[in-house]
Design a protein that fits this description.
Blueprint lengths: L3 E5 L5 H12 L3 E6 L20 E2 L5 H8 L4 E4 L6 H8 L6 E2 L2 H8 L1 H10 L7 E4 L3 H11 L3 E5 L9 E4 L5 H8 L4 E5 L3 E11 L5 E3 L3 E6 L2 E7 L7 H14 L6 E10 L4 E7 L9 H4 L4 H10 L12 E8 L5 H11 L5 E5 L10 E9 L2 H14 L5 H7 L14 E5 L5 H13 L4 E5 L6 H10 L7 E7 L4 H8 L4 E6 L7 H8 L8 E2 L5 H12 L5 H31 L5 E3 L11 E4 L2 E4 L9 H8 L4 H8 L3 H6 L3 H14 L4 H8 L7 H17 L12 E2 L4 H4 L4 H4 L4 E7 L3 E6 L2 E6 L21 E7 L5 E6 L5 E7 L3 E8 L16 E4 L5 E6 L4 E6 L2 E6 L4 E5 L12 E8 L2 E6 L2 E7 L21 E3 L2 E7 L5 E6 L3 E4 L7 E11 L3 E11 L21 E13 L25 E8 L5 E8 L4 E8 L24 E7 ...
Parallel strand pairs: 1-2, 1-4, 2-3, 4-5, 19-20, 19-21, 21-22, 22-23, 39-43
Antiparallel strand pairs: 6-9, 7-8, 7-9, 10-11, 10-12, 10-14, 12-13, 13-16, 14-15, 16-18, 17-18, 24-26, 25-26, 27-56, 28-29, 29-30, 30-31, 32-33, 33-34, 34-35, 36-37, 37-38, 38-39, 40-41, 41-42, 42-44, 45-47, 46-47, 47-48, 48-49, 50-51, 51-52, 52-53, 54-55, 55-56
Helix pairs in contact: 1-10, 2-3, 3-4, 12-13, 14-18, 15-16, 23-25
Protein name: Phosphoribosylaminoimidazole carboxylase
Family: In the C-terminal section; belongs to the AIR carboxylase family. Class I subfamily.
Organism: Steccherinum ochraceum
Length: 1145
Amino acid sequence: MDKTVGILGGSGGQLGRMLAASASLLNIDVVILDVGNHGPAKQIVAPRRPETSHIDGSFADATKIRELAAKVDVLTVEIEHVDAHVLEEVESSLPLGVHPRPSTIRTIQDKYIQKKHLQQAGSPVSEFLAVESSAKSIREAAAMLGVPLMLKSRTLAYDGRGNFVVRDLGQVEEALTVLKDRPLYAEKWVPFVQEIAVMVVRSANGAIASYPAVETIHKDNLCHLVFAPLRNRDPSVQERARSVAEAAVKTFQGAGVFGVEMFLLEDGTIYLNEIAPRPHNSGHYTIEACETSQYENHLRAILGLPLGSTALKVPATAMLNIIGASSNHQEITSFAQSALSAPGTSVHLYGKSECRKGRKMGHITIVAPSHAELLNRLRPLLEQVPGGNPTETDLYAPIPPIGHSHKFPLVGIIMGSDSDLPVMLPAARILDSFRIPYELNIVSAHRTPDRMVEYARSAASRGLKVIIAGAGGAAHLPGMVAAMTALPVVGVPVKGSSLDGVDSLHSIVQMPRGIPVATVAINNGVNAGLLAVRILTAGLPELVVKMENYMKTMESEVLAKVDKLDQVGWEAYEVKRACHGRCHRLISGSSATSTTGFCVVQMTGLLSIPSELCLAIFAYVEIHDIVTLRKTCRYLCNLTRDKSLWFNLLRSQQQSLPLPHSARKLVASPISELDQACIERSTISIYRTHREWLRPRQSSWNDLQRLTVPEAWSTQTSREEWEPRAIIALDIFLDRWLVAALHSSVEIWDLLPDLNATITPEYAANSTPALRALFHTPLEGTPWCTSCLNSDQDVIYIAASTDRMTRIFTFHIPTDTSPVSLDTHTPLHTIPSITASALRAYNPASNVLAFSHAQRISLVNLSTQVRWDIGVGQEGEELWSGVIGVKFLTPRHLLCIKTRSVEVYTFSGSFKAPYTSDPQHQQRTHWRATAAEMDIQRHDFPQTTFRGVSFADSRMTSSPAEDGATVISCDFLAYDVLRGLFHYRVELQSSSSFSSQEPFLKDLHFPYVSSPISMDTTLVAVHHMAQAIPPAERPDTPTPRSGFTPGSRGFVSSCSLGPQGTRGIWVERQRSSVKRAAYGFDVVKVVERDGQQQGEEEPAERQIAGKCICELNSFDLRDDVMHCAFSEATGKIVLGTRNGELILL
């Protein structure tokens, strides 16, 4: 240890500071080259001899580097962006050389060269290529790698600097501005689920050791949090990550610590991102959490000393970076002081004189006996850290849920069936009393063997320490789990319907040698929980004191009962259970008597059942019965306000009922973030809508609620322009926002305002308090219009087409922080229309419009200014089939409904312009078309002539077969004016899985996007009106001239299917009358059958069970209902008449 180490400092200095701190503990002299005399590294180590004094200068100054080399035995770097040529020059003059080797530094400091090196060495890296700093080169890279695209600076990039995510080609110019004139390269976007890192140390003789893999979490492109060890259900991820990192470091020369950053994909694939040839931010945790820190091992490696152990010495640890949120240095000081009082924390401040936003000012290491306790200790720090927010705190350190499994449990409680729950719940209650995190699951050894295998083999890697397994009958679960995990397993024999549980006891006890299972008494979940606690005391000594206190409590309870028995005698001794409040006789056999303000209830009554079982029972009770139970006594009143009860009821509603957008957000949120009253209110509202939405509504024409046009709108245009209000299309989005496209304008109405919110003046445009007129854009003669939501469901896109121009408007759905504006919106895009073509659909993700003319479809890509034409099929004149509806199923699958057929187009080729792109594309007067590269699948309807169609949202699921296929399904409701209403489902099966967000119709080529294996078109249900008369069997038998059965009661004029495909409406005009009727129906879920047996009859054709919701009478033909839309989740219906009136039901 008599050698001197030279450190080539960086702009931050914290790595050199921690390296120098470790050197001081080993009496290793350190000489630091950095600007100034009081940098972070120079502050904590003073030279012991004049010849080891620090040097003031830049790490890029060649003269200063030579001066440093003359003072030391070995030279290392704090940052890789140094002059490698100068290091090569001085390397031969140093006794121990430069580490890592200058050749290694040169390779790594250019990230493109680093990637090529790793690729050639066989390391798993994503696709990449070099690009020039020009928009053209980046677009060419996007054509090859796809978007999103990661654009990176090749040099001088660290701490998130020099990276830019190009999510669409419109960001290319912005990327060039941000990255300036640096040399660039592009990487294919990697859809990772975790970012992981491994610190690898390499000695001078080539020996390799690695630290445990950790999870890194970034914020604003900076490392924010590090968790160790890496938690993952796949136990092999830890070792595979270390193997990838070690193999990569072996390809470089020189000694020291290398920080290896990697991506973990959903399928378990690991991609290497990049390598830093120095100690790394994600390895700071090693100072307190590992047997040898990365800084000490770096010194050992470059000095030729034996490497230290890299093992963790604590069960769980985390590192939180302290990053400046402003220039206020006091924020950092105050936070560091508050962190000192947190258990298990070590504060490291870097001694930087100036604070600024985004600058690393220090870090905190937290250690804990378990990952659950680690999060408990981390949460207060996240609540106070500068720049933090509550959402981030709840995401990374959530409050442990009550009544649900902990995310990071120490004990796993499993059972073979839900009937075992009463036996296993006492074990959970014991763990609750000791504050031990646990999970409770159903894992059947016989019915779900694969689930059991996965559970047992992943238990240790997920952090479990003990497993409690309960089983009855054959009771194989405890033994099978014990055979597949090294963790201790406690078996609980459950008493069954026969043999009183003795069979279960024998099955669990009689395990072969080598497979031990600790077995408790029959139905004794309490002892199982206590035994798990005693097992945990081996690693958690604080539990010993708690267990001793528990034993003393048991002793006190028994002695108190002994005293009472002595006082009253055994004849008068009673075992009673108290319940506050008054109680009704809810179950036969239960009785209650009032005694000094509380009730004594027999054990056979409902109130004797544990609250957990009551909540489980309530899950199968009608909601109005739960509300009724609430009124019976205070105990049930409090119990029925349990948040988990209403959350589970809401989730069960999701399986069979359409949920409003707000309720879907509740279901997707962690229960700990939700308010019980909000969940209950949503659940009851959904239940009431389900019961009441098909009830008849107001039918008097004069009493109907109309959407009255505000005067402000009518004054925006002249009288002549305002008079025609012919409706083109109606749509309701997110159960609230009505888009009404008219001949001369597009309007947006708020049908469901927040009644608790203050109505601002701009919302008060309408005289009807329940409705708000929000948006109005005058247009000149718009015969076609289509609207849709973006994928984030916060923007409505409206595409309106005239004979000359097609414009796309955006309406940003207002929030509390972004109120709506009533000003006329500037179009997002304006393009020339395709001559004599109808606008059918718009896909905002791919920026593609779909037009139709007769049987032809044209697609226009607004980003590339290219048009594709889909030709007419060979149907012949007798089967002429015009387009009536188009929907994008995915960016590469287009569903087209024609009058006599349904067709699906799968695009497989590139979509490149056959001509040079015109920068003045908005002035283009015509489009040059090219033939589409695609596959077409088709299903004919020879007996119908559809005139209108309504689509539900498309759904994408995995195929039941284990072939990796994807099934895309979409329901549509189409009407034949005379023959009635037809509900069909189209299902596509693709040979490989793919994302619905894949780019579409840009200058790209996707050979991996395959066409569907099959297209199935199923008639879900039908509402018959006039039916076709089959041809006569004998040639001399006359056939009616009309070809249809007589006496049909009317014709369909409009229909609408909800976006979730669970409800629909249609409008009929009665023949020979003045009646118009609106009908609603619930979609009956079809039960799939394994196959039809021989001799079994074909299933009967399902009928649409429509109910009349509203019947209107008017002699005026202008009152005919030609359009309809409805909110599937709330049941609100909007009808549009021939004269442009909007009616709300």
